[in-house]
Design a protein that fits this description.
Elements lengths: L8 H10 L2 E6 L13 H17 L3 E3 L22 H17 L4 E6 L5 H15 L2 E6 H4 L1 H7 L11 H10 L52 H23 L10
Parallel strand pairs: 1-2, 1-3, 3-4
Amino acid sequence: MPELSRLTHVEAAGALARARVAVLPVGATEQHGPHLELCTDIAIAEAFARRLSDALGADAVLCPPVPYGLSEHHLHFSGTMTLRPATFAAVLSDIAESLAIHGIRRVLVVNGHGGNFDAVKLAARQARRDQDVLMAHLSWARLAADVIRTEMAGEARYNHACQIETSIAMALVPDIVRPDLIGEADLVTDRDPYTEPHDSVVDVPIWFDEWTANGALGDPKASSVELGERIVAVVQERSVGFARRFMDGLVAGGPRS
């Protein structure tokens, strides 16, 4: 698997000529409760992207990660950094344009942050319309949503510094976890059920401290490497299968010449 940033331009020319897809990890720099580092979203996204690229071999090039995303809802917690939606979408658009100049017209965005979803969708539509680049958008939370839902039965608030994300971090990037600081989420309970963060049916911009006083959801104490490995295995299998169909033109756009 060629890692683009570690190549010379001569080596990159060969890798890009052989590759059928570019893998681009994106995430955020934001709070993840008392026990996970601010790099959690991009660290997990990069780990998944690296595993995916390894499985695809020379068919893929791994792009440098984008460590900033749309995190305005976390700004009440120290250390959070955010971009504006137009800025983030423009970064993705410019990366897609650069890759197209080098002959890559299929991009797999491996996204570790739920707040980025809408902007990635818009950037992907623009990339296909304006640059003839087909951009797909993978998220571990969505790829394994059925498995996660079973694990979290009865819990409305999860997928952020909860037992799921903490377990995935334990399995993929254990150095970002502070085990001695894992405790209970400090949830704010008087919220409207239609706006709960996981299964909301009404879209209202809610700041994260309006859901949790310490930045965590779910029950981080229930985290384990074993739970993380189960979810990682599902995401790996499904992402590799999709990537191969995507490269073969079975998703959209026809076979790549």
